[in-house]
Specification:
Number of domains: 5
Bound molecules: guanosine-5'-triphosphate, magnesium ion
Helix content: 25-40%
Strand order of the largest sheet: 1-3-2-4-5-6-7
Number of helices: 23
Number of strands: 20
Strand content: 15-25%
Distance between the termini: 117 Å
Shape: elongated
Length: 647
């Protein structure tokens, strides 16, 4: 039935070798698997005896269609149609290297190209163990137009057999035929989440909370979460992060659920990511990559885009150096987006150059911002910066306080770029309020670094308003996470006022993670005061309409969070507590100030101008000799004007 032909240098082969080679045709390989242990062992055994390369060619049904001895690159495969420019040939080559050095040689790679193999493996024995390397196309082209080849290994040969070839081949074909451009962007991304539950870890967060947040991040990035895997494990497996059994279980699940990516809650090493990709056959992302992807989608301004691109480059650099990440680069979608479309395809030198350029550009932006800030400082306008966990309600608060129109949304990282608005406090003082990017636990360092330029607004502010979502059960941990990031920025010691937000969500008795639209239920709970306040929208709250918080019975959860912290409770949505908040801010700026009454002779009129710049002039009168000014000044400034002081 089958033509048991053996091609190549078979002239001097002993009959028992020929018989052995011919009997290899009777073996078969499970569909979607590279090779089998038996096939590998028998190939290596023959090679060791004859000292020559042996190659078998396997089709996608797992049948051996050709066998050759000697140089694989001269082999003639009539069954292989390698003419198609847009598809792989459907045949893979598994061959031995007599030396045990299994790196694919240049001739190996050119025969991979010539015959457009699904994949090409080289196997051999090294210190008694079967090892191998795999080469395959990425679907991308090199600069010179030839197809880019990805190399994997050397690894143990049985490891190669665990690679799931089918999805790999599909992705490559898809990429080759360029269907992907439109198709995969519209295709639903079906995500599986994964994490480990380390009982001994000092992690503050409950694994479930952290994974719930990861699901929220995945949703924000546009994925549908189809399953979650948590494994109890003291520490991550160095090769696969999870245990081998768990990974196998996951592979089944992925197949059944048609999942397209797996997102891990912790940062993976480049090799874990590569191994998992090979074992699971789908794109593998970690929390960092997911956050970077969201940032990439959200970046609007030039500065925002640059900063995201910088962070992405820094993230991908070690991963490109360490080969792999093939599937994560194929097919577009989550994890592959970014301001620089080709970012993951450029080689490392180009990446380094680009990093250098961006850093220069960011440095320029930084200087520009510094100038702005200096101008503001010269104008003596104090600055309050809103900081806090993502989704805490910072932008909503800025809008409520200043009537600004900043985009606020019930998704993570709605804001990336800072917005500054001025606010006139009840005592007439004008301050600037800055809203900026939210923080999150395990915020990638690369991102914090990259965002230094915009986060400097925070570092330079006079006071931080730390907005906390009190309706979130993890509020205490979120405060902790924000504090960590502030430390990293060198802003942890700044004066801070805690602003416990979303009070309306707790006062309806639902507590905890209750319904999102709690405010709507407030009046049915007999506490209509918030509603009355809320009806007067953004920025327009006037005193008297709003209940003083002292009258309001604060829920125990809020009291707990306030313990030992300076701050107040508000609802940015309904406006409750905003007057108190403004009063707190005003009183902060008042302390450390003194009120003076000065008399400045007309001959020194320039001092009056300086006074207007240096402090807040409350009252001005004139007499025949000069100007009488009542003014509030910082202690420092006051010292310079003391000589004019009267009474
Ligand atoms: N119930 C209630 N919801 C609020 C309140 N303040 C904000 N929200 C909602 O919380 C969600 C997040 O608000 P944002 O203002 O976008 O939060 P943020 O802190 O700016 O978030 P990022 O920019 O993503 O870091 C939105 O859906 C708001 O409508 C509040 O006082 N009560
Ligand atoms: Mg925001």
């Amino acid at each position: 039935m089958k033509d048991k032909r053996i091609q190549g240098e078979i002239q001097n082969l002993k009959p028992h070798i020929m018989r052995e080679l011919q009997s290899l045709y009777d073996l078969s390989v499970p569909v979607g698997q590279l090779s089998t242990k038996e096939l590998n062992e028998r190939l290596i055994a023959v090679t060791e005896e004859i000292g020559r390369e042996v190659a078998v060619y396997v089709d996608r049904k797992g049948r051996i269609i050709e066998i050759s001895v000697g140089n694989t690159w001269t082999v003639d495969l009539p069954a292989v149609d390698a003419r198609s420019e847009v598809r792989l040939s459907g045949v893979r080559c598994i061959h031995t290297h007599p030396s045990g050095d299994t790196e694919l040689s240049d001739p190996d790679i050119s025969s991979l190209r010539r015959l457009r193999f699904d994949a090409m493996a080289a196997i051999g024995r090294l210190s008694g163990e079967s090892v191998g390397c795999l080469g395959f196309f990425t679907g991308e082209k090199e600069e010179d137009g030839t197809l880019e080849v990805q190399l994997f290994g050397p690894v143990r040969a049985d490891h190669l057999n665990r690679i799931r070839l089918t999805p790999l081949i599909q992705s490559i074909n898809k990429r080759l035929s360029r269907e992907r451009t439109q198709a995969t962007d519209d295709e639903e991304e079906r995500a599986v989440l994964a994490g480990i539950d380390a009982p001994m870890a000092c992690a503050l967060w409950m694994t479930e909370d952290s994974l719930a947040e990861l699901a929220e991040l995945a949703r924000t990035a546009g994925a549908t979460v189809v399953g979650t895997f948590i494994q109890k494990k003291a520490k991550p497996d160095t090769a696969l992060f999870l245990g081998r059994g768990k990974v196998e279980e996951m592979a089944m699940f992925i197949q059944n659920e048609r999942a397209t990516l797996v997102i891990f809650d912790d940062e993976l090493t480049p090799s874990q990511q590569r191994n998992l990709e090979m074992a699971l056959g789908v794109k593998i992302l970690d929390r960092t990559a997911l956050i970077l992807d969201i940032f990439a989608q959200r970046a609007r301004t030039a500065a925002g885009k640059l900063q995201v691109e910088l962070a992405q480059m820094k993230y991908s650099l070690p991963r490109i150096l360490g080969q792999g990440l093939v599937l994560s680069r194929l097919g577009g979608g989550i994890g592959t987006r970014g301001p620089g479309e080709t970012k993951l395809e450029v080689d490392r030198r180009r990446i380094r150059r680009r990093i250098h350029d961006i850093e220069g550009e960011i440095e320029r932006l930084k200087k520009e911002r510094l100038l702005h800030r200096e101008r503001r400082r010269a104008a003596r306008i104090p600055v309050a910066a809103l900081v806090g966990y993502t989704n805490a309600g910072k932008s909503t608060l800025l809008n409520a306080l200043t009537g600004a129109d900043v985009f606020a949304e019930d998704k993570l990282f709605a804001t990336l770029d800072p917005t500054t608005r001025s606010l006139r406090l009840a005592d007439g003082r004008e301050i600037l309020v800055t809203d900026t990017v939210g923080f999150i636990q395990k915020l990638p360092h690369t991102l914090v670094q990259a965002f230094h330029a915009t986060l400097e607004e925070v570092v330079e502010a006079d006071i931080l308003l730390h907005v906390v979502d009190v309706s979130n059960e993890a509020a205490e941990f979120q405060i902790e996470a924000v504090t960590e990031v502030l430390k990293e920025l060198g802003a942890a010691e700044k004066p801070m006022l805690y602003v416990l937000n979303k009070l309306d969500r707790l006062t309806n008795g639902a507590g905890g993670t209750g319904g999102g639209e709690a405010a709507a239920h407030v009046d049915t709970m007999g506490d209509a005061r918030y509603e009355a306040a809320g009806s007067d929208a953004a920025g327009g709250f006037s005193e008297g309409e709003i209940p003083s918080l002292e009258e309001v019975h604060l829920p125990p959860a809020v009291l707990r969070l306030l313990r030992g912290r300076e701050g107040c409770a508000i609802s940015a949505r309904t406006g409750a507590g905003l007057v108190e908040l403004q009063e707190r801010i005003a009183s902060f700026f008042r302390t450390g100030e003194v009120e003076l009454t000065l008399h400045i002779p007309f001959t020194e009129n320039a001092a009056v101008t300086r006074l207007h710049e240096a402090g807040r002039v409350l009252q001005t009168d004139y007499d025949e000799r000069g100007t009488r000014v009542r003014v509030r000044l910082s202690e420092e400034e006051a010292a310079r004007f003391r000589r004019y002081e009267i009474s």
